[in-house]
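anyone seen this seq b4? input:
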Amino acid sequence: MLPKYTLPVLAIIGIAAAVATVINGNQPTPVAPAVVEPSRSPFQSFIAGAGIVEAKSQNIAIGTPLNGIVKSVAVAVGDKVKAGAPLFRLDDRETLADLASRRADWAKAKAAVGEADAELTNAKTLMHLADNISDPRAISTEELDRRRNATLIAQSRLQSARAQVLQAEAGVNAVETTLDRLVIKAPVSGEVLQVNVRPGEFAAAGILSRPLLLLGNLDQLHVRVDIDENDAWRFSKEGKAIGYLRGNRQFSADLTLAWVEPYVVPKRSLTGDSTERVDTRVLQALYSFDRAKLPAYVGQQMDVFIEVPDNIANHSGPAQ
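predicted toks r here
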């Protein structure tokens, strides 16, 4: 048998453990320190917005006007290209075969012109001989009409043959244009940011969720700032602006307004903040900055603060 004090002791120990568990459970959970100290505005009155770094020319999503298998890719990520430089080529074997056929038709049409021209010359010669006969009884009226008609028919055949030459030439030019379109070229001078296509892959025409190739002019970078529609009335083009790199507020640069897109659009650029509103529209302003002072990459996020002038900050309604 157990000693008579065993059960009371165990009960006391259980109660003490329960009390300790309740006390520990009610302790407030310590707030984890921020991984990165958030950026702070240097302005007393300001608009805060999230910005995305993009190329001066904007990020150009290169596509293809024609569907086809990629034959070769002429560039790699980081390459600098001039406007008009080839980026990648589509399979052109079928087009080259068609071009050879069209050129043969063109040559045949040219030969037909020579043949029609010779027939017209012959018809004119016979007509000239008939016209120079002094005795009208030497040739019948029917023969004269026949020779006149033959001349007119020869003239029409020559015109038709020349038209067929133009048609064949147009066919050759059309195929050559298609052949040129199979070589995708850089629309502007810039730097290759992404290459998402490889030889042997199928390149689809149209708007793609993932561009075949991304190109941009990085001589100067812009940051596209989303200004919430509720703050749009407070925005002023004369206000100063400063941008901080997301992740390190030690990297910052003064921003210069490039332009404002006056059309308010649905918000698409998300920062990942759990409290961020997505059911809103934003006014987009583009600012430029000195790339040498800020080690930013295209696509990187920035925290942007735009100064609100006193005459707007103290105004109860939209700025006039």
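The chain has four helices and 14 strands. The chain has a mean pLDDT of 85. kinda curious what u guys think
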